[in-house]
């Protein structure tokens, strides 16, 4: 089946509503920020109103170091949405940030061969301009790691 039309050609984008809109507003300024509880100092992601640790509704946005390590990853070989047809294969990872929160994001400029061990690899945030008003956080291996064949 041929897939065409503007409604299916572009990758899906996040819904910019509520706290999610606030998260992506930071990304649009190329800042990665997470919520942090004002009572117990726990960081959290994905955005939500209440702290899972202490139940407090008091929090603020705090800037992340932008650094973390790969907790888990997979290689996407088949685009399940036509917007990703040109992108495959690519690496999608769960990154554990220095602040302790985990987030799912793409690892750019790196295609694992299926045997590359990326778990515990240090990564740093980069920003992908996905649309006029949408910037998505992604990650890359630090430059020194890439020169070293992309592996630790
Ligand atoms: Zn708390």
UniProtKB/TrEMBL annotation:
InterPro entries: ChsH2_C (IPR002878), ChsH2_Znr (IPR022002), NA-bd_OB-fold (IPR012340), Thioester_dehydratase-like (IPR052513). Residues 26-56 form the ChsH2 rubredoxin-like zinc ribbon domain. Pfam families: OB_ChsH2_C (PF01796), zf-ChsH2 (PF12172). Coiled coil: none annotated. Residues 61-127 form the ChsH2 C-terminal OB-fold domain. This is DUF35 domain-containing protein. It comes from Mycolicibacterium vanbaalenii (strain DSM 7251 / JCM 13017 / BCRC 16820 / KCTC 9966 / NRRL B-24157 / PYR-1) (Mycobacterium vanbaalenii). The lineage of its organism: Bacteria, Bacillati, Actinomycetota, Actinomycetes, Mycobacteriales.
């Amino acid at each position: 089946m041929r897939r065409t039309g503007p409604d299916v050609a572009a990758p899906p984008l996040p819904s910019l509503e509520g706290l999610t809109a606030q998260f992506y507003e930071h990304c649009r300024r190329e800042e990665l920020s997470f919520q942090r509880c004002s009572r117990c100092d726990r960081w959290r992601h994905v955005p939500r109103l209440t702290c899972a640790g202490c139940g407090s509704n008091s929090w603020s946005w705090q800037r992340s170091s932008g650094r973390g390590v790969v907790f888990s990853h997979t290689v996407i070989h088949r685009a399940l949405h036509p917007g990703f047809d040109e992108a495959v294969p690519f690496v999608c990872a769960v990154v554990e940030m220095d602040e302790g929160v985990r987030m799912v994001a793409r690892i750019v400029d790196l295609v694992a061969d299926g045997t590359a061990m990326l778990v515990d690899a240090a990564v740093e945030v980069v920003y992908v301009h996905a649309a006029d008003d949408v910037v998505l956080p992604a990650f890359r291996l630090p430059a020194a790691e890439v020169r070293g064949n992309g592996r630790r």
